[in-house]
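Hey, weird one. I pasted the LRRCT domain-containing protein sequence into the form twice and got a warning about non-standard characters only the second time. First submission, copied straight from the form history:
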Amino acid sequence: TIILSNNLIGYIHPGSFSNLPGLTDLYLYGNKLTNVQVGVFWNLAQLQDLDLHKNEITSIKAKSFLNLAKLEDLDLSYNKITNIQPGAFLNLLSLKRLNLASNDITGISPGAGAFSDLFQLQELDLSSNEITYIPLGTFLNLPSLKHLSLSSNKITKIQSAAFSDLTQLDTLFLGNNNIQVLSGYDKLSFISNVALHNNSWQCDCRMAPFRQKMTGSASFENHITCEGPSHFLGQKIQDIEPKDLIC
């Protein structure tokens, strides 16, 4: 274990740790790093835990963490990350927990993007960012993902079936966003723990298909409090008949 936290480190030369091939834990949190140079973590084949939270990192480039085949925990929270390039987490074959909370991420590339092929990933925290939209294909090839937090973003729209490939998902946090309308009730009903509170729900015809499928058995149904239209302000959607949800 090496702890270099809470210093004023602003730059690490590529290969700085290359003579430590047996290193398992590296803590670099609370420094002044602005980026992750490709090659900084070269020859750390045994590294399991890498903590980079509370730095000033703005972007994660492709292949930033290449050859960290045993890495299980990567903490990049509380940085200034706005952009994650496709391939940023390439070949992190053992990664189980990825924390990107409290950054400035505005969007995630769908398709073969930032998170594709993280086959062992179980927890992904993207809370407290600037994300506005979740398109189809955002979360591809994440067969082990169980916990996904997107709370406290600025999400206004989630494309139908955006979470349909996450077959193992049992916790989904979407609270404290700007979501107005939601589809995909069938997928949500199979997720054990869903949080939808504090959004900008518009209880009109666009929510009628969702309301029609509500049975009262899913706890998240109680989270949807209407912010519009004005005559439904403050009402729970579960207390409104589907036929009354009109445009």
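That's the output from the first submission. The warning seems to come from a hidden character in my clipboard, not from the data itself. DSSP finds two helices and 13 strands in the chain.
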